[in-house]
Predict the 3D structure of the following.
Amino acid sequence: MTTTATASGDLGAAIARAAAGLRTARRVMVFTGAGMSADSGIATFRDAMTGLWSQFDPQALATPAGFDADPPLVWGWYESRRQQVMLATPNAGHAAVAQLQRQRPGWQVVTQNVDDLHERAAAAAGVPPGQAPVHLHGSLFAARCHHCARPFSLPPGLPGEPADGRLLPPPRCAACGGPVRPGVVWFGEALPRAAWKQADAAARACDAMLVVGTSGVVYPAAGLPALTLSLGRPVWVVDPDAAGAGSHPQLHHLQGRAAEVLPLLAAAIASG
Ligand code: OAD
């Protein structure tokens, strides 16, 4: 049965129920999407009006063919997103997840996000490196050669912008001279094999899953909550939209923003 709590209704009671379930769980997979970073000022992809894919063409900016057609446009777009992330800070939701991870070694973050806000919150909270987030869709900070896949070290500091506003071509690979591309997964590309293996194993092994801020439409990642449900384990969803994470009837919804709900949930887990 679906349980949906709203801020005006029984959110507190639903958080208490979720806390009771999560407190006793030894292994918890925290599965996050763009909504996790929305309260840090990073745009989601599919929110009406503000979502990136309502303003930009994913075919031009998130496919290998788009990069081949216009490397400076695509490189520049990801560099400006990287700059935005570097100027942002983890929100109270990231901090709450990191606090839970530090207290509970069996909590594992699996994210579709390409930012480093989970890492920065974890470092601030003293989470051991063994609990580093699994990045299913790559990272803005892991550029590589488009031809030979050799990793490319991005220069430290904020990405530069040309004074005349013209887009710069991507850097060239030191080994083969190919253009350097952002280290994110584009439409039509396979997920990084090791990350997918870890995520799939975590979804199968967890006693409970906590999903935060994903519309649940991009596969194969979107299939992970259903996998955990199919094994008889509970899945809670934190999202302001009641349709967050898709419409599986067994999802328990905690309807609200990550920065609002997750600190309440962490406090409720700690107080039990
Ligand atoms: P979407 O933009 O599809 O979904 C964002 C979800 O976050 C929605 O369910 C929103 O309701 C919810 N949301 C918005 N604000 C929130 C907040 N403050 N707190 C919590 N939730 C909030 O983003 P993803 O599901 O992450 O792929 O998108 C999946 C993939 O599609 C992305 O990883 C990206 C994109 O194309 C690649 O880059 C490969």
User: Anything to note?
Assistant: The pocket of 2'-O-acetyl adenosine-5-diphosphoribose is lined by residues 33-35, 38-39, 44-47, 51, 112, 137, 184-185, 212-215, 218, 238-241, 244, 257-258 (CB under 6 Å).
